[in-house]
């Protein structure tokens, strides 16, 4: 049955990248399938979520996190399609579209988590910055496929690209330029996503512009919040960072009440840790968050153009408050600890030193004296000017997995590591 929720406007491809044929699949199914089979997606298995990937086999990586977000996203869509009177079999939110957005939402994020992202932004500041969500778009539109020394995109649909646009402010227009922007050269993506109305004309406030998102982007964002607020707690408990004593100390020390009954919930969590039932206790919250999501109508200038802006989701205040409580618990008991900060510092320093050496060899020099990069990058960089070479070098380093970064660093700087027979 044809789904009238989406029109040809939503399914139109950007026209940059590998061509597509229908072959019995919808355009959104093709977007999803291309993500799943891509090297960029597979690399997420060795990129840090909270703890360094590979440290223990049960901690989440960017890959397992993305898979969990996609499952939660699909469940939210399923709940909305069944529970809303405005939706039906012939007029429904597309699960494949939301799944592809959720699977790809971290595809451009570098090694070593947010610390790696911050370091690369500092290093690229004079050349347009670095932002993980902006890099998502760059991979999808420009870097998805490689043919020798040429790269091309996956030719994504308008609805998929719009769902990836968590932020719509250009780097040049960003006040702090620390995060929550896209690259200046990605304005053509904004123009494709909204060809008749320029996003920047809708809001003068930067936060308001970044908060104006398509329905599917809002679902992905909420699914992401659910996944990491719950699963960071789960990993933190397993790693020994979150203990009953630390929970109770934090309860006594914190100066803000989130749910109105923080102590009651946290005591339940402490009991679940004592009984070793915390995984089931936390897992049940996922269903609570999903079923606390409603399908609502909204009014804006794009509502007449596409149902993706005619409708939105609304999350119960209790759910938002509980999700925030969980995030703050993780931030204070896991992320703001010496152990995690030391690892972040080390990862950032490794990336900085690696980038500096590569930049000196491939950007500052007229011609590289050493072949430090794989042949296709080594050849491709020499075809461009210094500005483009720096961006391409950032593409290369941001795509490296944690393990690959560490091995490359050791090969360059550790006298006791490596031989000419080592594989990269």
From TrEMBL:
<dbReference type="InterPro" id="IPR003607">
    <property type="entry name" value="HD/PDEase_dom"/>
</dbReference>
<comment type="similarity">
    <text>Belongs to the dGTPase family. Type 2 subfamily.</text>
</comment>
<dbReference type="InterPro" id="IPR006674">
    <property type="entry name" value="HD_domain"/>
</dbReference>
<dbReference type="InterPro" id="IPR050135">
    <property type="entry name" value="dGTPase-like"/>
</dbReference>
<feature type="domain" description="HD">
    <location>
        <begin position="62"/>
        <end position="229"/>
    </location>
</feature>
<keyword id="KW-0378">Hydrolase</keyword>
<dbReference type="InterPro" id="IPR026875">
    <property type="entry name" value="PHydrolase_assoc_dom"/>
</dbReference>
<dbReference type="InterPro" id="IPR023023">
    <property type="entry name" value="dNTPase_2"/>
</dbReference>
<dbReference type="InterPro" id="IPR006261">
    <property type="entry name" value="dGTPase"/>
</dbReference>
<dbReference type="Pfam" id="PF13286">
    <property type="entry name" value="HD_assoc"/>
</dbReference>
<protein>
    <recommendedName>
        <fullName>Deoxyguanosinetriphosphate triphosphohydrolase-like protein</fullName>
    </recommendedName>
</protein>
<dbReference type="Pfam" id="PF01966">
    <property type="entry name" value="HD"/>
</dbReference>
């Amino acid at each position: 049955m044809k789904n009238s929720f989406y029109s040809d406007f939503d399914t139109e491809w950007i026209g940059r990248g590998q061509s597509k044929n229908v072959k019995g699949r919808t355009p959104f199914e093709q977007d999803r399938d291309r993500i799943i089979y891509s090297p960029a997606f597979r690399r997420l298995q060795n990129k840090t979520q909270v703890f360094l990937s590979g440290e223990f086999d049960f901690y989440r990586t960017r890959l397992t996190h993305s898979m969990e977000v996609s499952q939660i996203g699909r469940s939210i869509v399923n709940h909305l399609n069944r529970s809303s009177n405005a939706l039906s079999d012939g007029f429904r939110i597309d699960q494949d579209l939301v799944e592809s957005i959720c699977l790809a939402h971290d595809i451009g994020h570098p090694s070593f988590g947010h610390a790696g992202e911050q370091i690369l932004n500092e290093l690229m500041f004079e050349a347009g910055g670095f932002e993980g969500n902006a890099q998502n778009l760059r991979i999808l539109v420009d870097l998805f496929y490689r043919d020798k020394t040429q790269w091309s995109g996956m030719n994504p649909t308008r609805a998929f690209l719009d769902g990836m646009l968590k932020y719509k402010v250009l780097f040049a227009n960003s006040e702090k330029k620390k995060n929550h922007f896209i690259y200046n050269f990605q304005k053509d993506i904004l123009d494709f996503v909204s060809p008749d109305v320029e996003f920047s004309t809708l809001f003068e406030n930067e936060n308001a512009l970044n908060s104006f998102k398509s329905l599917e982007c809002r679902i992905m964002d909420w699914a992401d919040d659910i996944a990491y607020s719950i699963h960071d707690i789960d990993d933190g408990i397993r790693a020994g960072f979150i203990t009953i004593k630390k929970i109770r100390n934090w309860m006594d020390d914190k100066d803000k009440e989130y749910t109105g009954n923080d102590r009651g919930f946290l005591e339940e969590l402490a009991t679940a840790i004592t009984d070793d039932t915390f995984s089931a206790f936390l897992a049940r919250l996922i269903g609570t968050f999903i079923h606390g999501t409603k399908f609502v109508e909204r009014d804006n200038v794009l509502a007449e153009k596409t149902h993706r802006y005619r409708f939105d989701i609304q999350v119960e205040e209790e759910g938002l408050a509980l999700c925030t409580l969980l995030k703050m618990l993780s931030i204070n008991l896991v992320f703001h600890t010496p152990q995690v900060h030391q690892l972040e510092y080390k990862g950032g320093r490794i990336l900085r030193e690696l980038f500096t050496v590569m930049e000196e060899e491939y950007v500052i020099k007229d011609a590289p004296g050493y072949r430090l990069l794989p042949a296709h990058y080594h050849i491709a960089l020499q075809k461009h000017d210094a500005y483009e070479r720096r961006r391409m070098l950032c593409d290369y380093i941001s795509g490296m997995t944690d393990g690959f970064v560490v091995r490359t660093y050791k090969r360059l700087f550790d006298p006791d590591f490596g031989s000419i027979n080592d594989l990269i």
